[in-house]
Write a structure and sequence with these properties.
Keywords: Repeat, TPR repeat. InterPro entries: TPR-like_helical_dom_sf, TTC38. Belongs to the TTC38 family. The structure is a single chain. With about 475 residues, this protein is mainly alpha-helical. It has a domain at about 1-155: Serine Threonine Protein Phosphatase 5, Tetratricopeptide repeat (Alpha Horseshoe), CATH 1.25.40. Helices cover about 70% and strands about 0% of the residues. The protein has helices spanning about 10-15, 25-40, 50-60, 65-75, 85-100, 105-120, 125-135, 140-155, 155-165, 180-190, 195-210, 215-225, 230-240, 240-245, 245-265, 265-285, 290-305, 310-320, 330-340, 345-360, 365-385, 390-395, 410-425, 430-445, 450-465. α2 (about 25-40) packs parallel to α4, α16 (about 265-285) packs antiparallel against α17 and α19 runs antiparallel to α20. The longest helix is centred in the C-terminal third of the chain and has 21 residues, at about 365-385. The chain is globular, with a radius of gyration of 22 Å.
Length: about 475
């Protein structure tokens, strides 16, 4: 990315996306931050995210959209909560005050409103505001990307797909970042089980931009969901040089690579990726995506009977400070895996009680509204399982199985809870649960034929209950 090709005030106006500032530098830095967000990478030639955020504030400290993008990115990262982080909460308030004191465009006002709603945990209303923007400004990529992420946190698979489908006809190949829409659309197609179409669209994106890590990620998901393990391994390996430059997503793509090894029962290979890539990166970045990947990987390996106890203790150092955040249920459940794995029962208890407390008066926070019906029982199911009360775990999890999508994340990430239910059902003393476990395996085999993991579990089921 060359600084010369970044859009100035005039260029944004020409695209019908006027920015309320007289500073060309501020406009260019806005473009630089947006570009890095879409590409999932810190571009050092531009100074990375940090450098650009400092530069935008220096260029025009009162530039509303500068605040919207920098504060919005911190919110969307879900690494801290405005309930606990006064600096972040006041950054949101400052943006709202700036917007109120200036004559800005209706589009920019909607951006401020969406960011404020998101900061209160009102993800659905935030998405409505972003969609409002896209109705009149279908090429507003910041609105599209923020909405995409928020839908992801809600497990809103169809809206995530359709949000991109609606704007696609308005995008032309010469427009900046055009090719990245392929990856966004592909991911929505994949999450709504249009696997062949998803793969086709992702490959179109990669033909235009070989280092588009989100398109790579979409293909990785397709291989995961169809249990095309060897194809997935080959694909990730052959394109590693291209996608690993996207430092923000690289760890997650390595996580997908490791999942294929877990699927094949090649635990050492998976652990090697965990140690050399996933944990190493999550320790350096503190990124929430990297952190939850590390949590889920150890949990999967442990369910498969691999001993990872020292790794739990190391990971606890990273997750424990987030115990009281409660930004998303998805994050909470992953932190709980670690405190349970590290046998840190005080932390587990604190996380559960904090969630129960917030569920009593959730206000407009969509995640806290779901805490009582989904978050708390799922935490309890994991605790029951951890204590060896397998039938209790089944009783909590089974009624929720078609609602787990609401905790957000992808089908591949949530599959861990399908596996947990199967393990709990097979280990339960209750004959009815054992039968349920076998039924769940038959069902799993039907949607994902030739899965080595399913075959292994079926063998176990036979051995256990003869």
């Amino acid at each position: 990315m060359h600084a010369a090709s970044l859009r100035d005030c005039e260029a944004w106006r020409a695209e019908g996306l006027k920015l309320s500032t007289n500073s060309n530098e501020a406009c260019k830095m806005y473009d630089a931050i947006l570009t890095q967000y879409v590409k999932w990478r810190n571009d050092e030639t531009l100074g990375g995210f940090e450098g650009c955020i400092s530069a935008i504030q220096a260029a025009d400290p009162n530039f509303v959209m500068g605040h919207v993008i920098s504060t919005g990115l911190e919110l969307v990262a879900t690494t801290s909560s405005t309930r606990l982080n006064e600096r972040l909460a006041s950054a949101v308030r400052r943006t709202v005050e700036l917007a109120d004191s200036q004559d800005i465009t209706p589009r920019e006002r909607l951006h401020v409103k969406a960011m404020e709603l998101f900061s209160h945990g009102n993800f659905p209303k935030a998405c409505d505001a972003w969609e409002d923007i896209l109705l009149d400004h279908p090429t507003d990529l910041l609105a599209l990307k923020f909405a995409h992420d928020a839908y992801f946190y809600m497990g809103a698979q169809t809206p995530m797909r359709d949000s991109v489908a609606r704007v696609l006809p308005h995008w032309k190949p010469h427009m900046p970042l055009f090719s990245y829409l392929k990856g966004l659309y592909s991911f929505g197609l994949m999450e709504t089980r249009f696997y062949d179409q998803a793969e086709k669209v992702a490959m179109e994106g990669l033909a235009l931009t070989p280092d588009d890590a989100w398109s790579v990620h979409s293909v990785a998901h397709v291989c995961e969901m169809k249990a095309e393990v060897d194809k997935g391994l080959k694909f990730m390996e052959s394109r590693e040089k291209d996608w690993q430059v996207s430092d923000v997503l690289a760890s997650h793509n390595y996580w997908h690579w490791a999942l294929y090894f877990i699927e094949k029962g090649q635990y050492e290979a998976a652990l090697q990726i965990y140690d050399s890539q996933v944990f190493r990166r999550c320790k350096t970045t503190g990124s929430m995506l990297d952190t939850v990947d590390a949590c889920s990987m150890l949990y999967r390996l442990e369910m498969e009977g691999v001993c990872v106890k020292d790794r739990w203790r190391e990971l606890l150092q990273i997750t424990q400070p987030h115990t009281d955040d409660h930004v998303t249920l998805f994050n909470d459940l992953h932190f709980l895996m670690v405190s349970l794995g590290a046998k840190e029962s005080r932390t587990s208890q604190r996380l559960l009680e904090g969630l129960q407390e917030l569920a009593k008066e959730p206000g407009e926070n969509q995640q806290h509204q779901l805490a009582g019906t989904i978050g708390v029982p799922m935490c309890q199911a994991m605790m029951e399982y951890d204590q060896g009360n397998y039938s209790g775990a089944v009783e909590q999890l089974y009624p929720l199985r078609y609602h787990i999508v609401d905790i957000g994340g992808s089908d591949a990430q949530r599959d861990l809870f399908n596996q947990l239910l199967i393990h709990a059902a097979m280990k339960s003393e209750n004959k009815h649960h054992q039968k349920l476990g076998r039924c769940l395996l038959v069902e799993r085999d039907a949607v994902r034929p030739n899965s080595p993991l399913t075959d292994r579990l079926m063998q176990n089921a036979l051995a256990l209950h003869i």
